[in-house]
Amino acid sequence: MATSGSMGVAALFLRRAVAARASRALVAFATSRRLLRTSPPSRAFAKELFLGKIEKKEVFPFPEVSQDELNEINQFVGPVEKFFTEEVDSERIDREGKIPKETLEKLKSLGLFGLQVPEEYGGLGLSNTMYARLGEIVGLDASIAVTLAAHQAIGLKGIILAGTKEQKAKYLPKLASGEHIAAFCLTEPSSGSDAASIKSRATLSEDKKHYILNGSKVWITNGGLANVFTVFAKTEVVDSDSSVKDKITAFIVERAFGGVTNGKPEDKLGIRGSNTCEVHFENTKVPIENVLGEVGGGFKVAMNILNSGRFSMGSTVAGMLKKLIEMTAAYACTRKQFNKNLSEFGLIQEKFALMAQKAYVMESMAYLTAGMLDQPGFPDCSIEAAMVKVFSSEGAWQCVSEALQILGGSGYVKDYPYERFLRDSRILLIFEGTNEILRMYIALTGLQHAGRVLTARIKELKRGNMTTIIETVGQRLRDSLGRTVDLGLTGKLGAVHPSVADSASKLEENVYYFGRTVETLLLRFGKTITEEQMILKRVANILINLYGMTAVLSRASHSIRVGIRNHDHEVLLANIFCAEAYYQNLFTLSQLDKHSPENLDEQIKKVSQQILEKQAYVCAHPLDRTS
Amino acid sequence: MSWAQAILLARGLSRGWGGICGAALMGAPFSQVPLRVPRGLHCSAAAHNSDSWLVPPGPEPRKGPTKALTLHEELFQQAPEGARDKANFVRAVQNFGQHNVHKRGHVDFIYLALRKMREYGVERDLAVYNLLLDIFPKEVFRPRSIFQSMFIHYPRQQECGIAVLEQMESHGVMPNKETEFLLIQIFGRKSYPMLKYVRMKLWFSRFKNINPFPVPRDLPQDPLDLAKLGLRHMEPNLSATVTIYQMPSSKDSTGTADPTEPHIVGIQTPDQQAALAHHNPARPIFVEGPFSLWLRDKCVYYHILRADLLPPEEREVEEIPEEWNLHYPMQLDLDYGRSGWDDYEFDIHKVEEGPVFAICMAGAHDQATLAKWIQGLQETNPALAQIPVVFRLAGSTGELLASSSGLEEPPPPPPPPEGQEEEEDSQQRQQQGQS
Q1: pLDDT attached to residue B87
Q2: Which of B206, B332, B338 sits opposite A451 (nearest CB)?
Q3: How far is it, in rounded angstroms, from Cα A487 to Cα A56?
Q4: N or C: which end of chain B has fewer CB within 10 A?
Q5: A283 φ/ψ angles, rounded to the nearest 5 degrees
Q6: Average pLDDT for B34-44
Q7: Reading across the β-sheet that carries B285-295, which strands appear in turn?
Q8: What is the CA radius of gyration of chain B?
Q9: Contact between chains at B342 and A447 (C-beta distance less than 8 A)
């Protein structure tokens, strides 16, 4: 972790510095002051959005890495990129349904199996930012990306996060070198997100030196390749009140412990080269030293691993999209119809703008999040990471679909790689927590924070405290009369550059009214808001947009000020995205209003109820007659 | 026209006008209307046995047509006994046309034919109705002037035409273009049968699919199948399983089962099974019934296995385990809940009831039979072995039973396998209602 933290300090310093000055020079200075930063990690950005506030110092200026680090990573990226573009045969991997041995060996020798393993354990010890940068290249082949992610983003992450020194020393070196491959075994036939229905069980042996592990896990990526498994199973734990309870415990299980078998690899729609199969544990003897974290503390371990692994999807997808833009642009500029290149048609141009915009936003979000994660003090950026995951997976699906639209028939046949991109990108919306579940997470975590902060206020409102009520009503009146929101982003010493000031005021307005809406929602539903999934989805959608807006504003402002190449293009993209997101947000906010005509929740619920009751499409055939 | 005829006519016309306004306008038929309405609500098909109410009852002493009636009766007698089908019915109608070139007495013949239709099993045949209408002489009854149409032109014939349509209506037969054509030919556009026709056209299509829980037109004859149908009808949950706990041991030709081994069919959903498994064995559960269920013109009886609602202090609050959802919090740590504006929980129409664990239909309603059901249920619901089961068979009889038999008599009349007994039953009810 050579320079992690530099960005944060740079951020601190820059806040006080004159905003328009180039920051590169400051970084070196800031790095030397790293140790001075002792304040506790500031409050997370996304959570504050729920209160209608923008925590500027978290996101402005856009995080930057030092020149040294950049050189270092570029040296590293070069050979990897060369390997991926020249040697990896994605078509063959997809066709044969496995990654060839020599490719795997080469990946290992490049060090890609231990990117985030600390250097003292033989890994590269990359910061999150650097990890994201490499993800861009790894993303060129989805099967390899998934295999690597299953290995290090979740498979061995548990050991890094919760392992003891001995466990780290024992397992990490071999895992980092790729000699051993890791897998993460959580999902069971009866249990996806539902931890209570985990059936695998580990019982302490009589000599109390082993756990006997029994159970089956499904959809385990790398299940057939892995030698080291992070397994979650129920154990009996004596509670503080001396009652025996079943709790989840995490274990490090080696294949060599015996009793570990796996089924045959699943035949999948996409990411066909990754190995996904069932893994069975039958009376596997796991020494008690291999308990990961505390006995009974497996739930937290699992949550931490899952939450930490998500942010990298943004850059991975962006890498894939950039490649896709190159390929489709080449096609659009050569294919002629009606004596015109495809590129001259407005409807085709629009698609390229969309792809570029999505790639730009997800890149910005991913690196902003990575930068936040790299700040010292283990900041909790799980909401941000989840937002990156949701946005990038949906962006990927949408963009690949649009790209296929540009390509027409050639996008649909196996002679070209495009259909593989489509198949591969579909899984992104499903794994690492489906997007629906992550939206719940995003919304509920934020609402929990806002709900706590607003408790006093809401209680007073409910009790009927006149001053609070009058204050609120007055505020609402002023809002409805169209107040201009100023959260300090724009202006002379504002955090954003004047070129994107308009977009910044849009963001400010959205954030302010989002805060008001959150307050109303909490007032309306209180803790029972957990049942209102359609509302939560909208809250999450707004938040994702707000975060995306913030990320692009921060990045574009930074690019202009620093003078990055083609920053005018960035400004265009940023402004387009912000305007679109702004209007989307306005619409979504009005949908959150109980009595607005945009709110169709009741009707939607009724329709689905009737369908689900009959378990069929309800309407009669259009040709049916009554007479 | 005699007084009696005039009243009859007025009554008939009021029906022809579409019931609603007719009942409101006319004083005379008003007394009958409320009697019929509740039955209609219960089950529209229950009116079958009296569907010829517009048709004057056969043996009614009349001066003129009595002779003619017997005459026409013979037309139907001509058909060989036992072959009462459409072909013979059509032949009888055609015979009338051939024997009676001047169509003398055609109104009486149509009334007679309408009464006979059920016997011949053609009461739902549109072609036959059109054939009946075709008996009317064409063009004769058409009003030629505005005054003729203002004062009911050929009332007896119009009334007869309405009667045909009325019978179509009660059997759910939708008139078609041919009907319209015939009516225009016979009575003209501005006539009451035509009005009736237009209204039928309008409302039939709207009412045809009004029932969200449609019952098949032809009910299964086998009581076992009928019971299955009834159970499925009452339990809309598609994941419910129907179990036959006992097959009827022997059947005679009439389809009635041997009383010693009647059929027992039950239905239970997985949710009900789970609820039963969680039932506190200290609290008894009850077998209650029989309750009646009308499926078109058939009445079946069912029993339920239910428990009383738990008193509020004993209800377990569903606890959300702490470490449940790996991905998002299942509950928020806030100490305020939903505000009144968004609280739809309270509903003045909602009555809390105890849980129903299973429903069954059996060929007999005695405790021995139902005990077999409970025994059968135990196979899939082992928890039932620990729970005391109380049979409350007479106590909670529905209104039907209360009116048809005394309270001391526990078993209700067994579900009639054929429509006949039950017709008597409903007639009995009707009489009680009238008295």
Answers
A1: 87
A2: B332
A3: 9
A4: C
A5: 50, 40
A6: 37
A7: B241-246, B264-268, B356-362, B298-307, B285-295, B389-392
A8: 28
A9: no
Decide if A302 contacts A250 (C-beta within 8 A): yes
d(CA B185, CA B175) in angstroms, rounded, equals 15
CA distance to partner chain A, nearest, from residue B235 (Å): 11
User: Given A402, A432, A508, A509, which residue is catalytic?
Assistant: A432
Q: What is the pLDDT of residue B424?
A: 39
pLDDT of residue B138 exceeding 80: yes
Would you say residue A461 has pLDDT above 60? yes
> How do strand A201-204 and strand A210-221 relate by DSSP bridges?
antiparallel
What are the residues whose beta carbons fall under 8 Å from the beta carbon of B241, sequence distance 6 or more? B267, B268, B269
Q: Is the pLDDT of residue B99 over 90?
A: no
Q: How far is CA A561 from CA A61, A496, B391, in A?
A: 10, 9, 85
Task: List the structure tokens of B103.
Answer: 């169509």
The Cα of B24 is separated from the nearest Cα of chain A by a number of Å equal to: 29
Q: How far is CA A250 from CA A22, A169, A172, A188, in A?
A: 48, 18, 17, 14
Beta strands in A298-396 (DSSP E): 336-337, 340-341
* Element housing B357 (H / E): strand B356-362
Query: What topology is assigned to A437-480+487-611 in CATH?
Result: Butyryl-CoA Dehydrogenase, subunit A; domain 3 (1.20.140)
Percent of chain A whose pLDDT exceeds 90 = 72
- Quickly list H helices, A527-618: 533-562, 567-591, 601-614
Mean pLDDT of B74-88: 73
Residue with tokens 């690899």: A265
At residue A218, φ and ψ (nearest 5 deg) are -120, 160
Residue carrying structure tokens 């946005």: A391
- Count other Cβ atoms within 10 Å, centred on residue A327: 17
* Phi, psi torsion values for A3, nearest 5 degrees: -125, 15
Partner-chain contact A455 B328, CB within 8 Å: no
3-state SS, residue B185: helix
Q: How many CA atoms lie within 13 A of B166 on its CB side?
A: 28
CATH 3.30.750.80 corresponds to the domain A182-298: no
HSE at residue A463, side-chain half, CA atoms within 13 A, is 10
Cβ(A288)–Cβ(A209) under 8 Å? Answer: yes
Contact A594 B342 (CB under 8 A): yes
ipTM (interface pTM): 0.76
Test the B interface: residue of A194, A432, A455, A520 with most B CBs within 10 Å: A194
Q: How many residues does chain A have?
A: 627
Distance, in Å, from the CA atom of A387 to the CA atom of A546, rounded to the nearest integer, reads 10
Q: Which amino acid would we find at residue A360?
A: Y
CB contact under 8 A, A306 and B326: yes
Closest chain B C-alpha to A300 CA, distance in angstroms: 9
Scanning every residue of chain A, which has its alpha carbon at the shortest distance from the alpha carbon of B206?
Answer: A626
Q: Is A459's CB within 8 Å of B342's CB?
A: no
The dihedrals phi and psi of A410, each to the nearest 5 degrees, come to: -65, -20
Peptide linkage before B262 cis (omega within 30 of 0): no
In the three-class reduction of DSSP (H, G, I as helix; E, B as strand; rest coil), residue B338 is classed as coil
Residue B2 pLDDT: 52
Q: Where are the domains of chain A?
A: 182-298, 437-480+487-611
pLDDT of residue B259: 56
Interchain pair B326, A194: CB under 8 A: yes
Overall residue count recorded for chain B in this entry: 435
Confidence of residue B71 (pLDDT cuts 50, 70, 90): low
What sign does the CA torsion over A353, A354, A358, A359 have? negative
Confirm whether A91 is a catalytic residue. Answer: no
Structure confidence at residue B320 (pLDDT): 74
Average the pLDDT over B162-191 and give the result: 93
Q: Which residue has the higher pLDDT, B166 or A42?
A: B166
Which among A195, A529, A613 is the nearest to B236, CB-wise? A613
